[in-house]
Specification:
alpha+beta, GTP Cyclohydrolase I, domain 2, 2 domains, four-stranded antiparallel β-sheet
Length: 240
């Protein structure tokens, strides 16, 4: 009979001594109650919830050997020809968006933001995403709103997978919310998915009713010594 193959994240649960013990450890270290049945669901799906991966990683620092961010993922084996193009860059079998159909989710709630292991966890560095054609709907009139988003973050254990981010941002095109809600909600989802050391977002919205609205948010003070360029988006001046 074929031997069952466990996913990397099922193996992580096993390293903590099982479902109940991991649930207890996470409840104690985070101050949030986590039921063993929730961990059982992770095990059955073969994947730990992204909301809890950072907490699992922190708790796993005390294991021997310590848990590392790369333990959450399985690198895809290179092709047999060993050509440079076959083995260049990390690819992970548990990613759904990258290499997928590219279908835009119906709403932000349906979109899945994915993250992968930080390839350089020993250094603080800045990642910038720019979305110059973000769209959503006014929640009162239903008319389209347009924005230029600039997202900066300093990774911790994970980095955001950009294909899933593209689909997530596109999913807002039929979502009705005010500028302030859209901008801060995008930031909140990124923080939830990747648990960065620091994140900021600039939402530069095009005028409606003659008034441009810019929305700015950050999670706190940036790590010392990180190069953080200005976002480079000029204040709206119209044609004057």
């Amino acid at each position: 009979m074929a031997r069952e193959t466990k996913t990397p994240q099922q193996k992580i649960i096993g390293r903590f001594g099982g479902l109940t013990r991991l649930a207890r450890i996470l409840s104690e270290t985070t101050g949030k109650r986590l039921a063993p049945s929730t961990v059982q669901g992770w095990y059955q799906r073969g994947r730990i919830s992204q909301n809890w991966q950072q907490a699992v990683l922190e708790a796993g620092r005390s294991l021997v050997p310590p848990l590392a961010a790369g333990d959450f993922f399985t690198p895809r084996a290179p092709r047999a020809d060993n050509s440079p193009s076959a083995s260049a860059g990390p690819a992970f079998e548990n990613l759904g968006a990258l290499g997928g159909s590219g279908t835009i989710p119906e709403s932000p709630g349906d979109a899945v933001l994915e993250a992968v292991a930080n390839p350089n966890p020993g250094a603080d560095y800045l990642v910038r995403f720019t979305c110059p054609e973000f769209t959503s709907l006014c929640p009162v009139t239903g008319q389209p709103d347009f924005a230029h988003l600039v997202i900066d973050y300093v990774p911790e254990a994970l980095i955001v997978e950009s294909k899933s981010l593209k689909l997530f941002l596109a999913s807002w095109r039929n979502h009705a919310a005010f500028h302030e809600d859209c901008t801060t909600a995008v930031a909140a989802r990124l923080v939830e998915a990747a648990g960065p050391k620091w994140l900021r977002i600039g939402g530069y919205w095009y005028p409606r009713g003659g008034i441009p609205i810019d929305v700015f948010y950050q999670t706190g003070e940036a790590p010392e010594g990180v190069w953080i360029p200005g976002q480079g988006v000029a204040p709206y001046r119209g044609r004057g």
